[in-house]
Amino acid sequence: MKNFTRIIAKLLPVMLFLAGIGFQAHAVDVTFRVDMSNETVSPDGVHVAGSFQGWDPGTTQMTALLGNVYSVTVAIDAGTEIEYKFINGNTWGGVESVPAACGTGPDNNRYFTVPNEDVVMDVVCFSSCIPCSANVDVTFRVDMSNETVSPLGVHIAGAFQGWNPASTEMTLTTDNIYVYTTSLAPGTTYEYKFINGTSWDDAENVSGSCTTGGYNNRYITVPDNDTTLTAVCFGSCVPCEAPTAAVTFQVDMQWIDVSADGVHIAGTFNDWDPAADEMTLSSKSGLYEITLDLIIGEMIEFKYVNGNTGDGMETIPQECSQNGNRYFEIPANDTTLDVVCYGQCEACGSQPVEVQLTFKVDMSQQTVSADGVHIAGSFQGWNPGGTLMNPVGGGIYVYTATLMSGYYHEYKFINGNTWDGAEFLPDSCSFNGNRYLTVPDVNTVLDTVCFGSCAGCPPPPKIGITFQVDMTNETVAPEGVHLQIASSPGSITPMVNLGNNIWAITMELDEGLYVMYKFMNGDQLAQSETVPPECSQEDGFRFLTVPGAPTTLDAVCFGECGPCIPPEESLVTFRVDMSNETVSPEGVHIAGSFQGWDPAATPMTGNGNGIYSVTLSLVESAHHTYKYINGTSFDYQENVPQACGEDDGYGNYNRFVDVPVNDTVLDVVCFSRCTECPPPVEVTFQVDMSNETVSPEGVHIVGDFQGWDPAASLMTDAGNGIYTYMMTLYAGDYHEYKFINGNTWDGQENVPQECGVDNGYGNFNRYFNVPSASGALDVVCFSSCTACAIQHVINIPAGWSGLSSWVMPGETNLDSLLNAIYPELVILETMEAMYYPSQNINTIGAWESQSAYKIKVTQDVTLTIAGVAEQNKTVQLGQGWNLIPVISENPVDVETLFSGITDKVVVVKEIAGNGVYWLQYNINTIGNLTPGRAYFVLMNEAGEIVFP
After folding, report:
1. Selection from 281, 291, 272, 283 nearest residue 253 by Cα
2. In whole angstroms, what is the distance from residue 400 CA to residue 335 CA?
3. Where are the extended beta strands (E) located within 427-488?
4. Residue 646: partners with Cβ closer than 8 Å, 6 or more residues away
5. How many CB atoms are located within 10 Å of the residue 686 CB?
6. Which of 335, 366, 529, 845 is exposed most, by the fewest CB atoms within 10 A?
7. In the chain, how long is the greatest CA-to-CA distance?
8. pLDDT at 487
9. Can you tell me whether residue 94 is helix, strand or coil?
């Protein structure tokens, strides 16, 4: 459906253009009707989608009539050939499955040619070719005796229910038989599968004579009367416990270089596993054989495998293949198959010889991909980008392969290097959709064939097309007016002035050629017109497909879709802020489509505060693109961001404006930005080199803000292994950077992926958005996302004491963190919870930021906590008793720490000690708070303290 929609979308403008040349179509009312009696109608209603409305599943809603019939009337041009489908809902998930009997194309769309008068179409049943009343009941049955049935039940999924693996559950009857009955249209063919569960991962893998198509689906052609199907075994074409016969397979590998992984057989009977069944080398040289017990009456398909992977599967000639495979129906008795040569239909003949085979394809009627032309086939592993063909002129591409005589191969040509560019071949010269041949025993140059054709390319006739443009609203350049044809590189042709401002040129072009073109006011690409979207294709060019007879195109106004209309003009004032730039001595200029893209012709005036402006008289409603120039050449043009730009076709962006009907002053924008200039911000970068041997050349920072020069920005040693660098950036800007140990790229850090962005060279850069206020970024360890790991060694005395740390441990699980002091550890407590390992009690959970505990141990112990320094130094205190940590590497004076809340704190005391800080009585026997300890604090109201 989607591929067809894209084709329609591309062809529709050309069809409308050609239609406008020959006749004027008239619209008639077409009434679509569908019967939803057999469906549960979606809450989003019923819709129709088709080529007449852009294949949109949610825009054309149908109205409910009597008897579950839904209807909608649409005006469509008479004579139009349309395709369409009905939708249960308003998304493609509810699209009907149209039977092949009333469908067309690869998507089985309904189709209809609109007559010359209003028409009401016959009522059809949803997903059917006929009315609902004519349906019959079909009962599907599956035997699950050999399966462990999923707790989610057994389901069926098929074209008759939207291929949903979870929506249609089957009912268990007797002897593990599951059934489902539905009403279907006689004569209609449906595909389906059984599901042991509710997802496609649970679908059966079935193969053989009861399946069809590339997905090996079961199928049924609905009879004229109600029917109950035979109960088949899940994953099989026959009932469970079917009788088997021994079948001996034989393949002659005498002319093949046999893989070290041996020879195998793969087929429908072993799920096409190329490594499942290895064959045995018999006493006869080169002959491999295997005997398998297979179900009598089952049609199997198979291939021999040189090795144990899919790459070693043989390619089977069409005269002995089915679906590209060998095939055989299992008889009632044990059977030995005839010996066949690997990759051939018969026994091996004379020894093959190496042959040079030259393939040739004519691409003259194609637009050749920038990735070149390739050939893919069984002789090179079907790799669409592995074998590049060589151009030899005239659109001809060749490739010579060394192959062994007598062997069958399939292949096709590729325009590009992916399967999207593969040719589609007529049935008359293809098998399995591929070209094919049996290698001759002499060097051979194959006939040249046209891409996608069985024969050579016929030369297209030349057709005279006259292009005309009206320059009434333009000042014609001294070089005159030119025609640029994009599909012919370098085709810029001068046009002739016919008078009355009409310029014309007649070009001889190939019939059927798709032509993209523009008019140019001058002879430079920068002077090309800007074509409105309503009459241009994706690249901004006008377009046509060359018809079969000479044609004179209507004269169009330069840069417009129709004839010239005398323009009304408005005054437009352009303004740019150059505050963040060093303005060129030549001044600031504007260049755009309204002045021929001359970077030096239109100077702007400085208005103070870095603002420059210019006022121009422009045609109302005209679409223009432009940019600002810091100087007088495009070497100093601004880089317009994509967010406020329009693609210029050269990998960059231009600003744009649609001229309003009134005089207007455009908003001030910053040079090379979409908005006003952001304020400058001083940003300090910090890196910890404690774990590194610092280079004699020092530590540097490199980034997009300094040209990625590893030696330009030396960082300052701030002590304790910390290096800093401050620079002025602009708020909101995005930047990438990294630190350098030394002054060359050899000393760059390895930024981890979790805090980096891919730099396109196999590693990562740091990144950030500049904040709105000056400040320092967090200290990070060189080549790390976080601060450098440190250790805090804590001596814990026997008995009760307090425990905290200024280090946030990397391991926060209490069992792991405190294992080193177990079994000396008796209990760990907070104000509300405990960790009591001998009793297997843990209501604390894990060590968290700002953790503080009361701890008891049976003897003196030492606990080492490894991690990074606590970043949050502010501790919140609630009214009443609190248990606080010491978040400092050094002792902290208690009076200084609590100096800001002396009116709120009552007392600070040690845990299991006599030290106390009691303001009311002017008592201080604590002095300093010791790192590693925890303390009780009594507050008369809430407050906070900040550790240094």
Report:
1. 281
2. 43
3. 435-438, 444-445, 449-450, 462-470, 481-485
4. 625, 653, 654, 655, 656
5. 18
6. 845
7. 115
8. 60
9. helix
- Tell me the CA end-to-end span of the chain in Å, nearest whole number: 67
Task: Please choose, from the candidates 361, 360, 404, the residue with its C-alpha nearest in 3D space to the C-alpha of residue 379.
Answer: 404
pLDDT at 133: 63
Three-state SS at 92: helix
The residues, ordered by sequence, that sit 6+ positions from 558 with a Cβ below 8 Å of its Cβ are 469, 470, 471, 473, 474, 519, 521, 529, 564
503 exposure class (CB count in 10 Å sphere: 0-12, 13-18, 19+)? buried
What 3 state SS string does 831-894 have? CCCEEEHHHCEECCCECCCCCEEEEEECCCEEEEEEEEECCCCEEEECCEEEEECCCCCCCEEH
Q: How far apart are CA 141 and CA 156, in angstroms?
A: 10
Instruction: Give the DSSP letter of residue 104.
Output: B
Name the residue among 688, 563, 568 with its Cα closest to residue 621: 568
- Kindly state the tokens that stand for 681: 């911000």
Q: What is the DSSP letter of 454?
A: S
Model pLDDT for residues 617-676, shown as the tens digit of each residue: 998 888 999 999 999 999 999 999 999 999 998 889 999 999 999 999 999 999 999 999
Q: How far apart are CA 664 and CA 615, in angstroms?
A: 9
Distances in whole angstroms, Cα of residue 603 to Cα of each of 244, 316, 579: 92, 74, 17
| The predicted structure's pLDDT at residue 11 | 36
Determine which helix (DSSP H) or strand (DSSP E) holds 814, and give its type and residue range: helix 814-817
Q: How far apart, in whole angstroms, are the C-alpha atoms of residue 692 and residue 782? A: 8
Chain mean pLDDT for the chain: 91
pLDDT at 18: 32
Taking the C-alpha atoms of residue 913 and residue 929, their distance in angstroms, rounded to an integer, is 13
**CA 349 from centroid of its chain's CA atoms:** 51
Q: What is the pLDDT of residues 379-435, one digit of tens each?
A: 998 999 999 999 998 889 999 999 989 899 999 999 999 999 999 988 888 888 899
Q: At 734, which amino acid appears?
A: Y
Report whether the peptide linkage leading into residue 99 is cis, meaning its omega lies within 30 degrees of zero: no
Question: 53 to each of 11, 48, 57, 74, 300, how far by Cα in Å?
Answer: 14, 9, 9, 9, 46
Distance separating alpha carbons of residues 82 and 79, to the nearest angstrom: 9
Q: Encoding tokens for residue 615?
A: 């006022």
The CA–CA distances, whole Å, from 814 to 105, 457, 838 equal 66, 78, 13
Nearest 5°: CA angle at 132, between 129 and 137? 100
Residue-level pLDDT at 540:
87
